[in-house]
Here is the input.
Amino acid sequence: MTSRKRVFDLLRTINIASCQCPAHSHRGNVQVSNSTPIKDYAFEIKCSTVRYGLGVTREVGMDLVNMGVKNVCVMTDQNVVSLSPMKAVLDSLVKNGINYSVYDNVRVEPTDTSFKHAIDFAKQGNFDSYVAVGGGSVMDTCKAANLYACDPEAEFLDYVNQPIGKGKPVTVPLKPMIAIPTTSGTGSETTGMSIFDYEDIKAKTGIAHTALRPLLALIDPLHTLSMPQTVANYAGFDIFCHALESFTAIPYTERGPAPENPALRPVYQGSNPISDVWARFCLQCLQKYFARSVYNADDLEARSSMHLAATMAGVGIGNAGVHLCHGLAYPIAGNVKNYVPKDYGTKPMIPHGLAVVLTAPSVFRFTAASDPDKHLEAAGILGANISGKKQEDAGRVLSEIILKYMDKMNVENGLSAIGYSVEDIPQLVKGALPQHRLLKIAPVPQSEEDLSKILEDSLMLY
Here is the structure.
């Protein structure tokens, strides 16, 4: 090694060690080395282009003209197809001379079967672009339809997350997709995730790859004014858990192994200084606007703020990830018995936001020891009095403020209120265990006994 290179390496090491900026303050395994470290040393932020504003939907036709597309697939569901958001989209397409076909059979809380129906439609249509108008179910279905139509020879499980599927990386170019969310919760308009109920195992799984991200997200708060109260409530709790889980996820420097190629870095990378900014923003919005947005449907300020918070939460989780609330929610939703929520139709189902929040008090009591200061900070942003609280109080304090929100929003009293009993816990644990992508992002490892205890503690909450 030349003397000049030795001096350069020494200065570089000193610079990183002395720097206190957010990028270098997480330096537990920073290595100045050409070898691949056991744990990761970097994170990256990828996001759809976001355009936000009242009435911005009117621009979708012009966007498609600018893309030079000729044959657009518009996807929605049976609820949204007759509402004003869909009318605004189609008016813009007609005004701008866009040729389109509508697929309105998206299933709320989609399954592998409903995905395959949409995929067949996409394959037959030979579309060169996609527009998704609706909630997370519509956007996730549209992503899957786009993917498999662009790779028509692929088997369905090829792209599904391991260990349920093969988890193949997406290498085929996808068609441009525009997402227009009509609910305020999933954040799917900015993420590379596509989630569905896999009926064989009675649990949710999905496809995760950056290529699935919509090219453009049009965030139009006017669409939230048609959102029913119960939908606004449960969608809001999805934001709630997105923010808390990404904020408390394992730090990106503790996740491993580091990829040999940066293209192989996973979608869920762990908490990081940038995702933490979005999490804090979302928690602030929830503290100020959540109840207002649910109980006052015409409160445009509140519903607009929650709509933006959903997108920002999507940016956070789309890079940091979510962990135990979501990992446990997948079998909770997949094993539904007879629970039929108001405003969601007549078939038994457990809305995603409800499924994630029912275990949240127990989850954050369990994870608090990993980083008590962050758990206390989150509780403080949500409105808890953390003055004089000790680190050992963190789990209890955060759990109590979560329960306060749930009580105020009239959330069902635990898993027992939606049809589960202690006898169901082994089946729910069995459904959670394959959710490797989520469980590994939790800040502490879990045994089957740990998951059982979290679920048991969530049977009754108040």
In short: The longest helix spans residues 273-295. The first strand starts at residue 49 and ends at 52.
